[in-house]
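Archive entry: two folds, one per protein. Generate the first.
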Amino acid sequence: MKTLTKLLLVAMLLLLPCVQAEASAKTWVNVSQAFKTTELKDFKTAEGMCVDPKDNAIYTIQKKSGEETCALFKNGVQVKKAFNGKDTTTVIGHGNDITYYNNHLYIADYSTAKVHRMKRSGSAYVYEKTYTLPGYSRVWNIETYKRTKINGDEKQLFILGTGPVNNNKTKLKFVIAWFDNTSNNFHEVGSFVVDNPNSNVLQGIAYNQETGWLHIGLSTATQGKNNIVSIKVTHVSGSKTYSTGDQVIRTYNGPDNNKYEIESIGIATDGKFYVLVNCTGCQDPVYHIKTQ
């Protein structure tokens, strides 16, 4: 979430399709640029991202440097009049992560414990409403999880990151919850904690519906220290802790590591894995990662 004011890029990473390969690979390979974000003007800080499975479009939130004013971009081009007829908004606060579900985008607001929903309108999206996650001060990220029955009714569950649970940030908490359109609240049904021994900064998350792996983006205070921690999440209710022994850690590398800060991640329906980064001083639009 550190503000970088240079080039923003989305790097496309190809994942092997099988669960075993997804769990065992320790370094990303075959990295190339999907697109550069255009028309940035003052919106030079990359925040949240997701892949819309309807047309495989990539939606990103770009934030104005130094303030909570955001714009929505589709495949690198700003979506006009997306927020009550305006091109930009302060309504969604710090739009730190996005997920897609059923013709809607759900945006995690890092500055509050709120999730903002945008509905499909034509070929893009417009702001619709806001939900609250009671009992928490922040929602760091959000991802669509699985459907299950709650008190006999079918509900769609989401995974919401609520951040560090201790002062040294060595444990990160995630909530499993469903939203209620009457109260406009998310209702928690389960949770889990992920060990974070190096106190890395929590960034975006992505859940693979086919394999059950949750991918968690982590960065440090300086660029060039980006990891993606992957864990197999299957439970719905109750609580669980994922220690370092449960984790597969991949390193997100580049030709010059100190230029990159990972911000958000997403998985397309064809299995392609996307990473949104803030990048300083980048010139070459294509990057290849060697296997370690």
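Generate the second and append.
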Amino acid sequence: MKSITPYLLKFATVALILTLVFRFFLSYTLAAELFTLVWVVAMSYGLASLLRVGFLGEKMPISFHCTISASDSI
């Protein structure tokens, strides 16, 4: 099993903070019946999560392996 690294702790801390902020603003907008702002809050959370993964996520190279043999016909 891999150990918990400082990088993983940063990733989890940012995820926790983003989730708590999202939950607060979502509850506020729903309680105030500002239903159009719910979309803004949700899209902001999604974008922030995507940026979090982009900046703090593990950079893994993606490689595709494709073999074509002479016996394969088109």
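Annotation attached to the second fold: The CA atoms of residues 29 and 38 lie 6 Å apart. The chain is about 65% helix and 0% strand.
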